[in-house]
Amino acid sequence: MGIGKKIAKIRKKPEHIRERYVWFWVLFCMVFIFGIWFFSVSEVLKKSDFGKSSQDQDSDVSKNSLSSINSAIESSVQNSESKESIENLKK
Asked: What is the pLDDT of residues 53-77, one digit of tens each?
């Protein structure tokens, strides 16, 4: 039986039967769409470090950058202090 014959057969049925067909296909399509959405969201959460937001990851990068800058400043201050103490000893 072709799809055209099946549609013609459904058109001959009473309205409440045709509504059942409509609601069945609406439900089927919704389940299909929600299934795709569910699996895509779960894949995104797996790839994003188990739900860790990108803002958290950005803040971690910022903290690491700030700590490396802080270390560089401390080492340059220590170097300048040691140079000053050497110059004071020479005088």
From this structure: 555 555 666 767 777 887 888 888 7
* CA gap 65, 32 in Å, rounded: 45
Q: What is the helix, strand, coil percentage profile of the chain, to 5?
A: 85, 0, 15
User: How many of the other CB atoms lie within 10 Å of CB of 36?
Assistant: 10
Residue 69 CA, chain-centre distance (Å), reads 30
Backbone angles phi, psi at 83, to 5 degrees: -65, -40
How far apart, in whole angstroms, are the C-alpha atoms of residue 11 and residue 17?
A: 10
Burial classification of residue 72, based on how many CB atoms lie within 10 Å of its CB (0-12 exposed, 13-18 middle, 19 or more buried): exposed
Q: What is the pTM of this model?
A: 0.46
Three-state SS for 51?
A: coil
Q: CA-to-CA distance for 43 and 55, rounded, in angstroms?
A: 19
Report the distance separating Cα 17 and Cα 9, nearest Å.
11
